[in-house]
Design goal:
75 residues; mainly alpha
Length: 75
């Protein structure tokens, strides 16, 4: 009977460790997604610079044009 209890405790500890590892992996996945977005943005900027464009007016976060206010001044 004692062995069953010990095995159950060990399984609970293993399950807890697996859950913690899954949280760490999910957090790392989030960071990888952010880094992938940054790399994509930098590639876009580099391509624009190579083509002779300053990239002004382009929102690099989403890859689309940024909003330019009615007065025409891009802040």
């Amino acid at each position: 009977m004692q062995s069953d209890y010990s095995t159950e405790i060990q399984l609970m500890h293993l399950e807890d460790q697996i859950n913690r590892m899954n949280l760490v992996l999910a957090d790392q996945g989030h960071h990888i997604d952010k880094l992938t977005g940054i790399i994509t943005s930098l590639k876009t900027r580099l391509k624009l610079l190579e083509e002779g464009s300053s990239g002004e007016g382009v929102n690099f976060d989403s890859g689309g044009p940024s909003e330019i206010p009615p007065d025409g001044v891009n802040r």
